[in-house]
């Protein structure tokens, strides 16, 4: 059996919403597909979504918090 790396449980400790996690990973995967701008030296996954999840897991990809409206 092939286990997902990184695990969903570990990713949800970093980004506590499955919706946000999927949205961010999908957006980054599209960016990787279009621009091939990989930020990690080595990836476990060959697929762009997996690479995006790995970037989130190691802290190379973060959610940008919107500034509160004044």
TrEMBL record:
It is an enzyme of class 2 (transferase). InterPro entries: DNA-dir_RNA_pol_omega, Pol_omega/Rpo6/RPB6, RPB6/omega-like_sf. Pfam families: RNA_pol_Rpb6. GO terms for biological process: DNA-templated transcription. One of its GO terms (cellular component) is DNA-directed RNA polymerase complex. It comes from the Bacteria. Keywords: DNA-directed RNA polymerase, Nucleotidyltransferase, Transcription, Transferase. Its EC number is 2.7.7.6. It catalyses: RNA(n) + a ribonucleoside 5'-triphosphate = RNA(n+1) + diphosphate. GO terms for molecular function: DNA binding; DNA-directed RNA polymerase activity. NCBIfam families: rpoZ. The RNAP catalytic core consists of 2 alpha, 1 beta, 1 beta' and 1 omega subunit. When a sigma factor is associated with the core the holoenzyme is formed, which can initiate transcription. Promotes RNA polymerase assembly. Latches the N- and C-terminal regions of the beta' subunit thereby facilitating its interaction with the beta and alpha subunits. Belongs to the RNA polymerase subunit omega family. This is DNA-directed RNA polymerase subunit omega. It comes from Weizmannia acidilactici. The gene is rpoZ.
């Amino acid at each position: 059996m092939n286990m997902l790396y990184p695990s969903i449980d570990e990713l949800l400790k970093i980004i506590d919403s499955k919706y946000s996690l999927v949205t961010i990973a999908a957006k980054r995967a599209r960016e990787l597909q279009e621009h091939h701008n990989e930020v990690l030296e080595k990836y476990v996954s060959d697929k762009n979504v997996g690479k995006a999840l790995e970037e989130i897991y190691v802290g190379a990809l973060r959610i940008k918090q919107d500034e509160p409206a004044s």
